[in-house]
Amino acid sequence: MPSWIRAVILPLSGLLLTLPAAADVKARSCSEVRQAYGAKGFSLADIPYQEIAGEHLRICPQEYTCCTTEMEDKLSQQSKLEFENLVEETSHFVRTTFVSRHKKFDEFFRELLENAEKSLNDMFVRTYGMLYMQNSEVFQDLFTELKRYYTGGNVNLEEMLNDFWARLLERMFQLINPQYHFSEDYLECVSKYTDQLKPFGDVPRKLKIQVTRAFIAARTFVQGLTVGREVANRVSKVSPTPGCIRALMKMLYCPYCRGLPTVRPCNNYCLNVMKGCLANQADLDTEWNLFIGKRHSTGPITKT
């Protein structure tokens, strides 16, 4: 044996002979773990005062440990609960934002409709008096159908507006010619030639364009807010898989079992666990971003 190797080994062998055997190492205290475990509301009767052999552990490393079987089970359930609460809390802002935006826009648009109907009614009462009041249901039906379309009813806007002008023409034709009695067939024939006769000038065409644009945009927007709220509600209800629960337990509470309750997982480790637990939700990421992007055209959803 070369002299330089002997010069290194002999001092080391002497040092090793002076170290205590593994069996002689005193078990570490579980006092920090007991404090942290009790702070979460668990009974301290479940936890030993010093480390014990860990062959009974099913998730955490089977080393000397501060965890009993009961502790591992309870901490596993605690990790599941904390994860579910965290997802619920994180998605709360998105859900409440969609709800509040929907409520504000719906109130705003309904108020516009009510004001428009009231203003039109007041103006026509002042202008035409009893003549209008006797035929006001034509206009009331128009606003009823507009409201029904806005709230998602099966209404064809173009057909509904055409019917309105046709009905209005029939009423006016009768009022202008009270000395005559017209059959239903005759009045229907008159209404069929509304486009050719143009008794209201270019007003029906312009109104149709304006009403169609406004109501299609309003209905689409309010329905989009409803869909966003429903998606956020469903996604926030997470049911962790057994594999996810094991990963959460290893990340959050296996340090307790090793006597290190203050140790926190690194950022990359946490991200990997979250990606695994939220794999189904992650599949929605692309479509959700596209959806939010479209909503940005009418106002971004940001915290204020």
Protein topology:
Layout: H1 3-18, H2 31-39, H3 69-128, H4 130-133, H5 137-150, H6 157-176, H7 184-192, H8 194-197, H9 203-236, H10 242-252, H11 254-257, H12 267-277, H13 279-282, H14 285-295
Structure report:
This protein has 304 residues and is mainly alpha-helical. The protein has one domain. 69% of the residues lie in helices and 0% in strands. It is built from 14 helices and no strands. The radius of gyration is 37 Å and the shape is rod-shaped.
Mean pLDDT: 82
The percentage of residues in β strands lies in: under 5%
**Secondary-structure element pattern, one letter each:** HHHHHHHHHHHHHH
Number of domains: 1
Describe the largest sheet: none
In DSSP terms (H or I, runs of 4 or more residues), the helix count works out at 14
Helix content: 55-70%
**Structural class, please?**
mainly alpha
| Distance N to C terminus | 76 Å
Q: What best-fitting shape do the alpha-carbon axes yield?
A: rod-shaped
What is the strand tally?
0
Taking pLDDT < 50 over at least 5 consecutive residues as the criterion, the unreliable ranges are: 1-25, 297-304
Rounded to an integer in angstroms, the radius of gyration calculated over CA atoms is: 37 Å
